[in-house]
């Protein structure tokens, strides 16, 4: 299996250590760079051209959705995996997912899901909690209804 390159962008240095430890145990996942500053995310992705960006929502706050959109315009081959630290970040995560992020993990499930999510996203899967998926589907249905494409049940 070809190595999957990963850039980690998160303000929490303890989470950096945790992610490093988890990725070190999987030979085909290779951490190529890390940053703790929102302003460094785009230049770091531009330089390393990773397959995956693991992005902590706390790093850029409400600008996460816009950052994902800019990042994918600059680096369409990169897949974005979001890390949530606080339950109140769901709206930020939803905006980022609607702008092209492919996965959304809670900090509480990092140990169990990070490597599985990276592998799944690399294969083209989305990795989101069912509750968030329900909200995405609601948004899609509401948007289709407004455009006259579908009917509300």
Structural features, described:
The chain is an alpha/beta fold and 153 residues long. It contains seven helices and five strands; from the N terminus they run E-H-E-H-E-H-H-E-H-E-H-H.
Features:
7 helices, Rossmann fold, 18% strand, single chain, 153 residues, five-stranded parallel sheet, alpha/beta, disordered C terminus
Tally of individual helices: 7
**In this structure, how is the largest beta sheet organized?**
5 strands, parallel
In CATH, the topology is named Rossmann fold
Strand content: 15-25%
* Strands in their spatial order, largest beta sheet: 2-1-3-4-5
Q: Give Rg in angstroms.
A: 15 Å
Unreliable segments of 5+ consecutive residues: 144-153
**CATH hierarchy: architecture:** 3-Layer(aba) Sandwich
**Ends apart, CA distance between termini:** 45 Å
Write down the oligomeric state: single chain
Q: Provide the domain count.
A: 1
Mind telling me the CATH superfamily name?
Response regulator
Number of distinct beta strands: 5
What can be said about this structure in brief?
By secondary structure, the protein is α/β, with parallel strands linked by helices. It is about 50% helix and about 20% strand.
SSE arrangement:
Blueprint: E1 4-9, H1 13-24, E2 29-35, H2 41-48, E3 52-56, H3 57-60, H4 64-74, E4 79-84, H5 90-98, E5 103-106, H6 110-122, H7 130-146
Parallel strand pairs: 1-2, 1-3, 3-4, 4-5
Helix pairs in contact: 1-6, 2-4, 4-5
């Amino acid at each position: 299996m070809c190595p999957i390159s990963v850039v980690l962008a998160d303000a929490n240095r303890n989470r950096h250590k945790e992610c490093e430890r988890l990725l070190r145990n999987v030979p085909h996942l290779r951490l190529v760079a890390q940053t703790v500053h929102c302003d460094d995310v785009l230049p770091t992705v531009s330089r390393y051209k990773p397959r995956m960006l693991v992005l902590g929502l706390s790093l850029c706050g409400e600008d996460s959705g816009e950052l994902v959109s800019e990042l994918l315009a600059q680096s369409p081959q990169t897949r974005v995996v979001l890390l949530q630290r606080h339950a109140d970040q769901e709206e930020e995560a939803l905006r980022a997912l609607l702008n092209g992020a492919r996965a959304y993990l809670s900090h509480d499930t990092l140990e169990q899901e990070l490597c599985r999510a990276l592998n799944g996203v690399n294969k083209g899967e989305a990795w989101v909690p069912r509750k968030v998926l329900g909200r995405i589907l609601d948004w899609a249905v509401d948007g289709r209804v407004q455009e006259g494409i579908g009917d509300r049940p």
